[in-house]
Amino acid sequence: MSAAGSARSRDAATTLVRRLAACVRDAGFDPERFRFASAITLAAIGALYFAFLVNLPNTYWALLTIPLVMRQQSGATVWRSSARLIGTLSGMVVGLVIVAFFDQNVFAIVAVLSLWLFAMGVLARFEMGSDAYAYGVAGLTALIIVLDTRSDGGQAFSYAVSRSTETVIAIIAGFVVGLVLLPRSTLPLVRSSLGEARAKVFETIRLAIDRESEPSAEMQRGFTADLRTVFSNMRSASFERTSPNGSLPRMRAQANALIETLATAEAFSFALAHAERGDAVPQPVEEARRRLAKLFDDLGEGEPDAEEAEERSGRFAALRDELGETISAYAFAEEPDADKLDTVSGLYRVRQLAARLADLYAADAAVLDPKRTFKTVKPTQTRYRDLVAALEIGSRPAIAFALVATFWLFSGWANGRVLALITGALSLLVPTIAPRAALAAAGRNIATGFLTMVPVALLLMVLLPHVQTFWEFAVLIGAPIFVLFYLFAGGPQLPIAIGGTIMLAIGLQPANTPSYDAARLINTGVTLSIMPVLFVSAVTILFPNTTAHVRRHLKRGTDKLFRKAIRRRLDEPGFFGQFVDLLGDYGGDLDVDDETNRRLIGRSRGVALVVHEICGIRNSKGTIPEHADRRLGEIAEEAARAGPQADLSSLLDRVEAVGHDARRRLATTDDAGNSAAFRTVMAAELLHAMIHQRRLCLPGKTT
What we know:
Transmembrane segments: 36-64, 85-102, 108-126, 133-149, 169-190, 387-410, 416-434, 446-464, 496-512, 518-543
Number of strands: 0
Pfam family, one: FUSC
GO cellular component, one term: plasma membrane
GO molecular function: transmembrane transporter activity
Strand content: under 5%
Structural class: mainly alpha
Number of domains: 3
Distance between the termini: 57 Å
Helix content: over 70%
Organism: Pararhizobium mangrovi
């Protein structure tokens, strides 16, 4: 080697060392990272030990499974492991069926596998979290059984049994470590995410009470994303052992109260910020607002205990009851004038916010004191099932696999089979475990993990033939795994650790009778390094995550949920469960510095307010006047279809007519039957303001 070449090699090595040193320095010592890296390492070693013990033919599969099923919290580990097992068994059955029916026709096999990947991608998009991961694993397992056995029916069954056994071994090892040796409950994470969501909701309340401004698109997107995280963490926590009256059901009630408070605060903010008949807020409303602000200011900064939370609930409840009496004093015996209507509307919004805060602090007290009773609520969040997005996501792995498999068949390249398998599998699997906006970055990070571990694997090939015991082997294999997950366990860097572990497992293929082959390792490294390029190409070319793409899905999803709620095909909890998922998913990918994006997010939140108001009418006592809920819903739908320059005067007239009918009903019924009519008057007032401000209109071009 020339002197110049030696210098370049030294410079490259020095740069790599400096980067690794920077990673170590940035990581510092983090006890939680240390615990998780230790758990992954122990589970990997345990899985290999048991796989060696039963002498399975592909023991490295157990090592491949560990980084994909082990999570930092015990509940998430159980959820992911259950999904992995169900997906493996389902994929095994389908793979055996494909081999049985198409073992003589390789082109038919490629076509059927492409359809299977498409179906799994569609179904995965209909689920969330590790429920979606199960479909990804089902697609992966069928690919492995069919392609790795070359469609050999005699070999496929034993291969499928071995694959399933390795998966079970890895899951058991993960459970022993994650649930027994180093457990970590998900409930603290639920509390933390609830606290973050609560802080943003309270910031919205502060702005509303002080009449400073309405919540910005950034805030709306932020607290919706936080609520989405809360529900995902609750789903993980549901896999842990909790008593029926334990913390999780109480936190679920707390989250439900938080959503109600948020919707009420937004309605309060909008109603007081956009009074149409004059700039001045009526004096009784201003006095009520100041009293609410005083109660809110007196809350202080610290977290209350159960007694203090109950006391706070009582204060807000007292204001609620007093304002209820004040509102009742404004009789509707005659057609009220504009000032009177403004006063009643404003007092009602203040009262509603006080009532929701009372409910929220009562829910807080029930969480802090397990002896207190609480209102049980069913799990709120469900996946918004976007059919168009599902078809797109299902098409991506199917097309990617079909293209690479076709190249493999016509080129005759030996590693083309492996490349087709991994490209199709990861195109299906990665979107089930990584956010949509981070898919390309996840592919690049997986490639980084592959390349980082090639020299480490080569070094291990030199050292491993000289070890005499399993524990020496465990130290050599476990050390790089520990370092990977200690340095890269956090957030978007996790795919680096996963990619590095995959390279170690596939490159070394540890077994009872090892056969280390440097040429095979290099060949594997080259093949795997091509895969991320193909994966990134698939996610950036096939249905790319552009702004126009996200806008279309957000608009269409908002309109679909709106129609279902207005037509009573979706109740209020069902609507908000799917709405949180919709806006948290698509809204999180939009740049709120863009005016169109801000208006589109605001439109979606406006739709949610309308649904909240209409459901309030339906849930009230008494007869709904003249089908007012349906009429207001139809008017709001028309406003939501209107363009930015549309004439909305006829819609405003129709809203006023609904309000007039409700006021007439209010004047001719007794107090017991007034609730639905009164809520209709208030909803009509709010919808009138929203249409007047064009809050529901399309922001212009959304493509």
